[in-house]
Structure formats: C-alpha cells, structure tokens
Amino acid sequence: MKRLLRLRVNGETKEVAFETSKTLLEVLREDLGLNGTKHGCELGECGTCTVLVNGEPVLSCLMLGVEAENAEIVTVEGMSQNGKPHPLQKAFADLGAAQCGYCIPGILLTAKALLDENPHPTREEIRQALSGNLCRCTGYTKILQAVELAAKEIA
Amino acid sequence: MTRKKSLSVIGKPLRKVDAMAKCAGETVYADDLNLPRMIYAKLLRSPHPHARVLGVNAARALTLDGVYAVITGEDLPQKFGIMPSTEDEEALAVDKVRYAGDPVAAVAAISESLAEKALGTIDVEYEVLKPILSIEEALASTEESQRIHTWNRRANVQKAVSLEFGDIEGGFARSDHIFEGTFFYQGNTHLPMEQYCAVGSYGPDDKLTLWSSTQTPHYLHRALAKVLKLPASRIRVIATPVGGGFGGKSDPFSHEICAAKLSMITRRPVKFTLSREECFYVHRGRHPVKMWAKTGVKSDGTIQAMQYKTFLDGGGYSSYGLASVYYTGALQTVTYKVPAYKFEGVRVFTNKPPCGPKRGHGTPQPRFAEEIQMDEIAEKLGIDPLDLRLKQLVEANSVTINGLQISSCGLRECIEKVAERAEWKKKFRKLPFGHGIGFAASAYITGAGLPIYRNDMPHSGVQIKLDRSGGVTVFCGSTDIGQGSDSILVYAIAEEFGIDPADIRVVTADTDLTPVDLGSYSSRVTIMTGNATIQACGKLKLMLLEAASEALEVPADDLEFADGQVRSASLPTRGISFAECVVKAEGKHGTLGATGSYWPPKNPREFKGSGVGPTPAYTFSTSIVELHCDSETGEIKIDKVWIAHDCGRAFNPLLVEGQTEGSVYMALGEALMEEQIFRKNGLHKIPSILEYKSPTTLETPEIETILVETIDPEGPYGAKEAGQGPLLPVVPAVSNAVYDAIGVRIHEVPITPDKILRALEGRLKAVSIPKFDFPAPLKWQPGQGVQVEQKS
Fold it and tell me: B39: which DSSP letter?
C-alpha cells in the first residue's frame, strides 16, 4: 500500500507517495531520483548506502522510508554548499581517494558525520568511524589521508 | 620538430578527470540508468550443482499480470565463452546445469519483485547427478558417465599442459640441495562493491544497445552477436563506469545476454541487477590451486633447476581457464635466473561457480609457493633471504629460460629500497617471539602479448578530434574501472599538445563511437592506449606545426607545444595559442582528426603455450610485511606493509600509489581471511559480505609505497603496469613473516587462526597433491623457443 509522506532531504521538503515496504534507499533512488546513494548488498553489510539521518550515519537499506518522516536526511547530493564542494569531496578528489568511486558517497557521509562531531580526529578514530564502510579499490590509505586533509581544511 | 625536454603533465599528481563527479555522486553506473518504459528481469538459478534439465515449464509465470516474457535454454542455444577454443557456456542451461546457481530461465516483468515472484512459478524438472566438488574427485571421475562436459578430451580435465626448458635432469643432478614442497592457495572472489548490472534496449530501428558494468565491452559485443544471431553492426555495447572489477567483469555473462534477448522480445528496455548473493555465484574469481614445487640449488643458493606441478579447480565452465592454467607456470622464471625449468599444469572441471581472472590471474598462487620456498632455501643455507635473491636476479635486456624477453628491470632497486625503509637487517630473525618480518619478490606483465581471439588488428585504437575552440576530444574503447584509464588518455594528450587537461573531453567504452580497445584486463591499458594516443597526437602535430610555422615564420623544428601555445623554442615570446593554431591548421588541411594504434611487439618464440607470458614490459615488486602473531589465539595482526614497485614511469604517482595500495590490501584479504568455499550440496558456504570476511579499515595496516621508475623503452613515457603486480609479493611475505614470528611454516592461504594453532601443535598436515598423468612434456631449447628434437 502506498502512503503520501513528507521527507526532508538535503534541506528540501519533498512530498512523495511510495509503498510502505520500501527502504529509504529505494525511496531515495527510485522515487526521488537521488542516484548518488549506491547499494552493495541491501542487507546492511557493506556501508555503501550510508546517508545521514539527523546527522547520524544510517544504512539506508535497513531503514524504511516511512521511518524517515520528519527527519533531516542528507545524501551525497546535499554535501556541497552554495555550489561549492564540501572540503571532504575536494580532498577525496585531490588525493585520488575515489578509484571506482562506488563506495565513496557512503564513505563521504560517514566521514562528514565524524568531522561534524569531532573536527580533529586521530587516524585511529577515523579508522573506527569508517570501519563499517567497505572499499575494495583503495586499501583505505588515501581515504584516511583525505579525511585528515579535509579536517585540516575545515579547521 | 623539437621535443620538450621535461614533462609537464606526466608524472604530476593530478586529479582524475572523473574525480569530482565520483565525489559528487554524479557518476552514472549501470544501475543508475532509468529508461522510459524500462522493465526488470531476474534469473532462475539451479539449486543443484549437477543435474540434467529434463524440462522447464514457464506457463504459469506468463499468466501473471505484469510478466512480459520468460525465456529458457531453448531461446538461446548457441554456446559461447571468452576463449574461442573453449566456448562451453550457455546463457540459460539447455540440457544440463553445472553448478548451483547456473541460470535456467529468465523473466522480465513490470517490477523486480514481480519478476522474482514469477521465478517461483516456473517448474523445472531436474535429474540430479552426483556433483564433483574437488580436484581429487574430478581427476578420479574418469568414466564417461561422470563427465561435467562432453567436449573435452579427458573426462573432467579442461586442459593439461607440460613444458620443459633446458636440461632439467642435469640441473637437479648438479644441485647440492633439493627443496620440495606442496602448497594450497584457496580460491577467493573479487567482491566489487557494485553488483553486476546490465540494461538492454532493442529499438524500433532494430538496433540493440546494451549498457553493462563490464571490463571488456569489445569481447561482449562479439559474444552478443554470436549468441543472439544478430549482425555485430547492429549491436552497440556501452560499458558504464565500472564500480570495481578486479577481473570479475571480464567474461560475457548470462544476465547481459538475457537483458538483450528479453528486450528483443518485449521491445522495452530491460534491466538486470544481480543481488549480492548472485555475485558470489557468478564469481570467475581466483582459482583454488594445489601446487608441488621443487628447486635445486648449489650450496651458495644459486638455482640450478626449478619444477612445478599445478592443479587448478576450475569450477563448472572454461571461462579464461586455458590462459589461467598456463599462467600458473609462465612467470616463475621472471625474477631469478633459472637455467632449467619444467612446468606441468592441469585445470579440472568441478560443479562449482566457474573461476577466472582475478587480479594477478593465475600467478599469485605459484608465486606464493616460489617465494616461500626461496625463504626456506635461505633458512636452510643460512643466507639472508634478500642476499639469496640479490645474487641471482634477472637482468634488464635478457631472455628467460622460457623465452620471455625482459626489457627494463628495477628488481634490485626494489629489494634494496624496501629493505632500507623497513630496516630489514635490524629486524629479520631478531624480533621477539610472536613478532615477525617477511620478504617476497615478484614480477608481472604489462598487457598480454596476444589478444583473446587471433587477429592482426591493433590491441588498442584511439581517435582524436581537434575543435576550433582549442578543445580536444579523444575517442577510445578503453574501459575505466576506477584505475583511471580515462585520465591516462587526457594526460597523454595534454602532454603532447602542451594544453590544459581541462580542455580535453573523453568518450570511451562505446562500441558505436570508439575505436576498439580490447578491455581492462592483464594490466594492458596504460601502455597500449598511451602509445596509441601519442601516435595519434604525432600525426596531428605535423599538421599543426606546418600551419604554425607558416603563421609565425618560424621553422617547424624550432616550434614547441607548451603552456597552451605553439611557440618558438628559441624565442618563446613568438607564438600563437593552441586554439589559433588549430584554426590555422583547419584552414590549411580541412577538418582535423587522427587515429593512433598499438600492437604489442611480436614474440619471435612460437611454441604451444608461448602465447601466455610475453608482454611489452615486465614490472617487478617487492614487499616486506611486519606482523604480530598471537600463539594463544592464532590471530595475526599486520603492523605494516612496505611495497616497492617498478612501474616504469609513474604516469600519475597518485594513481600508481592508489593501485599499489589497493593491491596490497587485496593481497592481505587473500592471505588472511578471504575464501570462496562450498558445502557438500554445492551451495556457497558464505555468500554474503558479512560472512565472506574482507579487510576493513581496522584490519588494513599502514602501507608504505615506494615507486621505482625504470623508464621502459616500450612504455608511453616509459610507463609500465601498476594494477596487479604489487599484489603478488605480499601474500608469501605474510607467510614468511609468520615463520619469522612463531617458527611455523604455513603453505596455505588464507592463513587463518585455526591453521596457525594447528601448525603450532604440529597438526597442520602437508598439502596433499593429487595423482595425475600429465602429458609428455614438449621440450624447448633454453630461451629460444626452438623445440628439441624428440625421439618418438
């Protein structure tokens, strides 16, 4: 059965009707056309579909769309501000931290949640924060360096 | 024409051309495609590993409202496969399934959930057959009735090879010590974060377009034409940006062919997105290989003879297996001087998902054996393992015993640098119990010398168009799987024309628009597209120089392309902008465009099996791994990995480092935890990301990368590969470090805590080697590829 819901995504209010069984991931990709959010397992195992819900990283494949009503959702499309990329996006591009790029939206958002809460994380804290986001390309090295670079940039 | 003395783009840590799109979430991967009227498809897969298909009844599925088409084996009976001599796959099983997960039928419906529901209404009648699930069972199942395939000569043997180079018996006879060992390298899978996805669209113009997450759009194009029985000229394959490949997206797949076929039937775009579980069954990953290795050395450690037997568990189909089996024997000779070499290899069929090429294709397994054995030789003879190697390294501009031509070689520098950075001499055999350090070296190819199907055409083609604006567009069939192949084209053009990379557009991986490049496999792309690009630029530069010379009244041999200008090298103030130069040249010559092509050098040594191993240039890598191993729990914690890689020239050091770090990471996964394993009923034991363990940020250690630049004469600006070679030394270095830490040898991967504990308790059995009568070896004179006369 479909329900009409009001979702707050990337600072915009969206009215959208969707099957109540749909995950937030499906609603974002299929009903709102926000394809920046990717999926790697749809079982909550890989971290690829991470978005921010009220500032917290959430696996959008494990959350129903209806549960996100009245919450502030941020996807990778909402990271840039006033047309300028987020320092994390810039640092990831500058350091070659995105190879195939498929896991990157989820990693960027997880890193953003970390930096919002802890602007000067140690490398160990970054490792902990990103431990639920798998990347098969980079060996994580440039990802960790890019988060550190962005932290410096923001500070 | 003068050449600029220094490089202005090559060697710089530039952003990739697609970097910002990827970081903004704007890159369009296959599953991000949404076409008008698109419908969704799913595959019905066999629950049995080995069964005859007696009948498929899909009548009920077709009665469901919203189900538009169902196809079965009868609809696509043409066999196909990546290697032309072993085409043994069907898009949907015609009369037999050969692994649990083998597709039997496909449904297209208005939604993915309806397609899935419809699968449940299809009745398949199977006659279940006894599955063959191990190398030993395959080799023992020699009866005709036990065959998995019928086309191959010996039951359940896909390919058996035997090659001998030099005086192997004499070599062992001359040796003071003989080392023999058995090894097992478990299979593992690529696990790209992007699931397989394809969209087929058959248009009202009777032309087919297939978008797919594929590494090899050209080979897919050929397979589609063959199986669908359509003229290739009416098929367009577009490889979407690939969300991780590692070799796993290099075969033509059932879902790609079925997406096309279902679209031909329904005349609507059809999308397949495979579930993560399906990805584990599609597989084509690392072969499980059992190995026997024998090395004879003088008392000073110099190698006199080397002999290998390899047994590959191929799974249900051939895939790249013909190449895989040769690769388990081809490159053992490319690091140390080996004066006599014998190799026997066999790939068997089993009722498991087919194995294929994964990063390093067939070479990490024997390299694991070779480098552990070298460590054992050093230990026994009381020589430092690095010194043992340093005294017998292959040299630049030499030919190996099996006829492989080595051009540049930075192996010595790789060993010396990695040892220095890791403080090897201070640590080796000097760390406390439980703390260890290990070393290994390796070599890899920069592109295969031969294409998959025999032909005389170039391996890589590039077309460049110059616009009056000064903008440049490059068209190339190469496929960016994250390694940065799109960026390579841009960097080379920016270098040649002295222009800003931002003024260059790339159109790649589209069989309608781009000249053929064979695909992203065998680490071939940079060397081949790079050289083709330089050639195309060279043709255009002649026209540009002629026009600039006239306009500036400067002789062409005093002109240079730099800083967005074509200018006098001796009087740099005298110049015109690149855009102006294009306008003048177009006025003089007409529309400006040129093509470039690349063929690898011809291998002068032609013998059966000589197609695998040759390459335009070999890379060399060394690794030192430092780790802690807990003798109570068997747990291994990697402290740090040092990796030195001879990449020729670092085309873009950021990307080369990225490939190297990714290789180290993937190697650690294989060394410590990743395994593709099956139950007795043929089902995958752990077909999910949660259960199939792979390293996270917490298990991946600090990686220190050292790039050694040897400037290879065949490489574009001297560049060689970086994407696969650095994986190879890391796995044996882990095993050697475990020995240094706790004194036990582990001849198997993954090196799990359980194996460590069993080894410490003396309960880890030696790897058993199957019995098999290999064919009589073909004997070849050392290095020359000339067959030794054999009495019959």
Answer: E
